[in-house]
Design brief:
heterotrimer; A mainly alpha; B mainly alpha; C mainly alpha; A: mainly alpha; two-stranded antiparallel sheet; 22 helices; C: mainly alpha; Cytochrome Bc1 Complex, Chain D, domain 2; 3 domains; 15 helices; 46% helix
């Protein structure tokens, strides 16, 4: 008893230490605004006789006392842009992207851990709870190796900045001085918390202590998220500066500098993106372990792990377009020209690639689900319908990736004899494109529903009606989406733009109503047989890898788009890029560069996985005891 | 409940619910944007 | 291909030689024939894979600065290498296959990106600091010509239009078409000799004017010199309207000219001074000094109304388009100056009477049926498009031909034209105007 209470005491102390670590940067930060306020006051007194120079915030339009130096006007040369015999921008691009990949992976995995650990704690089934716990532990183990790499890459990034863009980095760090210190402290806090969390896992696995451990993961994630928000603040500042006057002089309000027009949309978009990305990486890890495993138990475990990671990743992938829509709307609201550069101008072809990739992501997800039905007895009844889904997906995909208008010069316009190409003008109308992507998502929803009821037969009294209703509802949804897409051709553009809303609503209705209805129908359903984890084709694992690679690629692509929309500005409209690399690369060059980054990331992380597997081989097979294979799978496992 | 398990009745009821629901979705969501869903038919 | 192989060999010969040495060593050292065969075979595969890998590297190196569209070929080569290796090195098989597959996905996406049309964003426009006050009159006049006509030396071409959009209505050369507004040839002289002396101008007695606006701003007074006359006309077109050029039906009490310093044109004071300098200089007249010109404008445009000088802005508006299609349709109508000549239901400020009222949802079908119609349009939207791009294809009676500028096909983006056509085709006689989008 005494021992237990002592343990409890230690655990609570650990948690307190974590919260303390979380609060540390905030406490440290408190004096700095205070000093900041005193300093200008003193300055003001000193200058009372002369004059206090005031400036106007470029975004908030408030007046403030000038407290910083103006943005330097750089000139091409070794002073402002020292270089190796290579394009500095590309080097920075590489360093940035690698840091971001590892960083977002390291931020996403603890969130997964938290969710899975929580699922483990609340699950009543003992065997399943143990598996969840083991899975969460596996996740954090993966992220731990990546964590140190993230820190190393962060260091490399800073050195790259300092050596290649000293003037720019000097200006940014001048503005963000207090934030950067908080950031560094947060990083320390994150490391401390992560290690306590990881090494405390075995010591705190029962009862009350487990809850403390779970709270630790919450604290860990709060720190991680704040860390990301801070990093986003300087990206937001570069795109949509605020808190400075027209010359880029800091006006004394650090909150304005952080809270720029695009900060919050970026925050949301990045959290969701990180989660989907993290899911992809873990799924790829599971796929690797699955393909490399020699025993049925291993295969069962990693099959299951891959499925959970995929499901979590896709769950965060679905809201991602809506967050993207918000970000885009804020971009348009901030500077219309920026929006046009993105969607209809210089960078528009990159969005065509993005559309292709979104299609690929959904196709891979569907393919995986169809393959996954193979591990269930009773799912054969759905197999023969899959060809129709393939047809639907293919049609939706073709419509979705067709471009409608690209930027046209007046000469091209004249050559075409009107605003649109006489034939091609009929393709790729927005409502039709929306129809395409909504058909794809609805089909994905349908695949999920089929997967979830694969090995089950509903026993509720209204089962027959439920099935028919579900079928009719899906059919009507397809008719509605496609009908709206066709209808768009008959009405003028300003009415047509509104059609996308009912289209999306239709898809979401399918998602929510049909998942809910299916859940109710399958409650206490009769099982045709267990899900035989591990009895899945190797091809399905390649679908997971495809998902992960494509997502990594898309992340690189979108990051490139976001960054290059500033065109020739270091800080939009405040600090010009006068280096020889102020132009925008071709689509092809960008694609090559993104591929390079993606492959570098994957080769390095596969190497990390491989190292991990070497270490695991040495350890005895004690952890494997809890891993099931023959343990019957309760319905709640998916 | 037993009447609903008759396929014909089930299909008809489902159709009415689904078609009605989607018509409402189309109409009100367009209306919310200040647009007229039935534009073509009012010509 | 040949030089690729030779380059791969020259780069990778050390590695290949080591492997070949290993091959010989296995041949000699391993006694067991089965093990010997396996080792030798695996080494051979290793040599092939190494060679392919160096091919990929050579291709990458060759094309990095040259034809970078060929770079994805390297990725495809590595894919092949990985799968070949995976087949025979089974203990690393999963890793190699996964890696190979990733290279394949990347090669596909990269290839796709390279297959699309390649556009490179050019270098940013040179950052030019415009220091108006230190310019010579000639430099100022060049700037002015650019503002009016969109380029130096374009003043003698009918139909050239710059940021100021003046030539949409005004003629600038002797004999140039100038139906909607006075031809400005000879203005500096005329201003002093005729306009200021015109009793309707009521110099120094603005209250006596019969126009809808008496003064540019309360207490501004009237012009007293030729330069002040020009400045006042820019700042307050309604204060004095040259006989015959007023808004139809207003009996020359109201002008159809927009205030130039107000949006959407928003010329700044230095820009207006540049325009005026050109007007003087091109006729061989001595222009007033830059400071005097600015003063003349400051007299009529109160501080709060003066457009901000946009200095550090990139010449993003470097395109010569009047509207790029991103604006709401009412702004497109304003930017294209359609509103100066046409009444457009639902568009605020569209009260011009030089051209017909635009209710094309009703009118266009009637026009298409008119036996006098000689154009090529088949539908309402085509008709509207044709009327904008080729105004002379069909001229509505009783309006005269050649009044509407023929430049809109070049001066409005495809998107802007489309928005105009969409809007106008929905305007019907007796129906509420459509929604502005």
């Amino acid at each position: 008893m005494g021992l237990v209470t002592r343990k409890n005491l230690f655990a609570i102390m650990g948690l307190c230490a974590m919260v303390g670590l979380l609060l540390l940067p905030i406490v440290m930060a408190l004096p700095s605004p205070a000093i900041g306020e005193e300093a200008p006051a003193a300055d003001a007194e000193k200058k009372e006789g002369d004059k206090v120079e005031k400036g106007r915030d470029v975004y908030y339009k408030t007046e403030g006392i000038v407290m910083g130096a103006p943005a330097p006007k750089t000139v091409d040369g070794p002073r402002d842009y020292p270089r190796y015999n290579f394009e500095s921008r590309v080097l920075l691009w590489f360093a940035n992207q690698q840091h971001l990949y590892y960083g977002s992976f390291v931020l996403a995995v603890p969130i997964f851990c938290m969710i899975i650990e929580f699922m483990g704690v609340v699950t009543k089934d003992k065997a399943l709870a143990k598996r969840y716990d083991q899975l969460a532990y596996d996740f954090i183990k993966i992220s731990l190796t990546a964590y140190s790499l993230t820190a190393v890459l962060g260091g490399i990034l800073i050195f790259t900045f300092l050596t290649l863009y000293p003037a720019f980095f000097g200006y940014l760090s001048g503005i963000f001085r207090p934030v950067m210190h908080i950031y560094a402290l947060m990083f320390v806090a994150e490391s401390g918390t992560l290690y306590i969390y990881y090494y405390g896992w075995d010591k705190m696995k029962e009862g009350f202590l487990k809850w403390i451990h779970l709270s630790m993961s919450v604290v860990l994630n709060i720190i991680g998220t704040l860390l990301m928000f801070l990093a986003n603040s300087w990206i937001g500042f570069m795109m949509s500066p605020a808190g400075v006057d027209e010359q880029g002089r800091f006006l004394g309000n650090i909150w304005h500098v952080i809270h720029t027009a695009l900060w919050n949309p970026l925050n949301l978009h990045r959290i969701l993106g990180n989660m989907a990305f993290g899911g992809g990486v873990v799924a790829a890890y599971a796929a690797y372990k699955f393909l490399a495993s020699k025993t049925d138990e291993d295969r069962a475990h990693y099959d299951w792990m891959g499925y959970i990671a995929m499901a979590l990743g896709v769950a965060f992938l679905i809201p991602l377009p809506f967050a993207g829509y918000w970000l885009m709307r804020e971009v348009y609201a901030y500077r219309q020209q920026m929006g046009i550069t993105l969607m209809g101008g210089l960078l528009a072809w990159l969005f065509i690639i993005q559309a292709t990739m979104i299609g690929i992501l959904f196709l891979s997800t569907n393919y995986y689900l169809w393959q996954a039905m193979g591990r269930m007895r009773g799912a054969e009844k759905y197999q023969r319908y899959i060809k129709y889904l393939v047809f639907l997906l293919a049609c939706g995909y073709m419509v979705f990736i067709t471009p409608h208008t690209m930027v046209m010069t007046p000469a091209e316009l004249k050559a075409m004899g009107g605003q649109q190409h006489p034939v091609l003008g009929n393709y790729g109308v927005m409502s039709a494109k929306n129809g395409g992507i909504n058909v794809i998502i609805t089909t994905t929803v349908l695949s999920f529903v089929w997967y979830m009821r694969g090995n089950k037969v509903s026993t509720v009294s209204w089962a027959k009606f439920g099935n028919i209703f579900m079928g009719v509802f899906f059919a009507c949804a397809y008719i509605n989406i496609i009908g709206l897409a066709v209808y768009g051709y008959y009405i003028p553009a300003n009415v047509r733009v509104g059609l996308s809303v009912p289209q999306v609503a239709t898809t979401l209705s399918c998602l929510f109503f049909m998942f809910a209805l299916n859940g109710v129908m399958m409650k206490g359903a009769k099982q045709m047989g267990p899900i035989e984890w591990g009895k899945i084709s190797a091809r399905s694992q390649y679908a997971l890898i495809m998902l992960a690679t494509a997502f990594t690629w898309m992340m690189g692509l979108m990051g490139y788009i976001r960054s290059s929309v500033r065109l020739f500005w270091h800080v939009n409209e405040i600090m010009r890029d006068n280096s020889p690399w102020a132009y925008t690369h071709t689509v092809g060059f960008a694609a090559n560069m993104i591929s390079f980054n993606v492959l570098f990331f994957w080769v390095s992380i596969l190497f990390v996985f491989w190292l991990g597997s070497l270490a695991a081989k040495k350890a005895p097979v004690e952890a494997k005891a809890g891993v099931p294979g023959a343990v019957p799978q309760p319905a709640a496992s998916h | 409940m037993s009447a609903l398990n008759n396929p014909v009745v089930a299909v008809i009821v489902s159709l009415i619910v689904a078609v009605g629901y989607f018509a409402m979705v189309d109409h009100y969501l367009m209306d919310m944007q200040g647009l007229d869903f039935w534009y073509l038919f009012r010509q | 291909m040949g030089n690729l192989i030779s380059e791969a060999l020259s780069m990778g010969w050390v590695a290949i030689a080591i492997l070949a040495g290993l091959l010989v060593y296995f041949q000699v050292s391993i006694a067991d024939p089965a093990a010997k065969k396996r080792a030798v075979f695996k080494t051979f595969i290793g040599i092939v894979a190494t060679f392919l890998l160096f091919m990929a590297i050579a291709n990458y190196k060759n094309n990095f600065y040259g034809e970078n569209r060929m770079l994805p070929a390297s990725l495809a080569l590595i894919t092949v290498t990985s799968f070949v290796m995976a087949m025979y090195f089974t203990n690393l098989g999963a890793l190699l296959k996964i890696g190979g597959f990733m290279f394949f996905v990347a090669a596909f996406l990269s290839g796709y990106g390279n297959w699309l049309p390649q556009v490179e964003g050019g270098f940013p426009p040179k950052e030019e600091k415009i220091t108006w006050d230190s310019m010579t009159p000639q430099q100022l006049a060049d700037k002015g010509e650019e503002i009016i006509f969109g380029g130096i030396g374009k003043s003698s071409v009918q139909g050239e239009i710059g940021k100021g959009q003046c030539p949409l209505c005004h003629g600038f050369q002797k004999g140039f078409l100038s139906e909607r507004a006075p031809n400005l040839y000879g203005l500096p002289e005329r201003a002093e000799k005729e306009r200021l002396a015109d009793p309707r101008y009521s110099m120094n007695a603005p209250a006596k004017r019969d126009t809808v606006e008496k003064e540019a701003c309360p207490g501004c007074g009237t012009g007293t010199t030729a330069q002040e006359y020009i400045a006042e006309s820019h700042a307050c077109p309604n204060c004095y309207v040259v006989a015959g050029f007023g808004l139809k039906g207003s009996n020359d009490r109201e002008s159809q000219m927009p205030k130039i310093h107000k949006p959407p044109i928003s010329l700044s004071l230095p820009e207006l001074a540049a325009v005026d300098t050109w007007m003087y200089l091109r006729e061989g007249k001595e222009p007033p000094s830059y400071e005097d010109m600015i003063k003349s404008y400051e007299k009529f445009i109160p501080e709060s109304d003066r457009p901000k000088q946009q200095e550090d802005k990139p010449a993003g508006a470097a395109s010569s388009l009047l509207a790029d299609g991103s604006e709401p349709v009412d702004q497109i109508f304003a930017k294209g100056q359609c509103v100066s000549c046409h009444v457009i239901p639902g568009i605020p400020g569209a009260v011009g009477t030089i051209g017909p009222k635009l209710e094309e949802g009703t009118n266009a079908p009637l026009r298409l049926k008119d036996p006098g119609y000689k154009g090529t349009a088949k539908s309402t939207t085509e008709y509207i498009m044709e009327s904008i791009v080729e105004p002379s294809a069909y001229v509505v009676k009783p309006f005269p031909d050649n009044t509407m500028p023929k430049v809109f096909g070049q001066k409005l983006s495809a998107g802007a034209l489309k928005k105009i056509v969409d809007y106008l085709s929905q305007v019907k006689v007796g129906a509420p105007p459509p929604k502005i989008s």
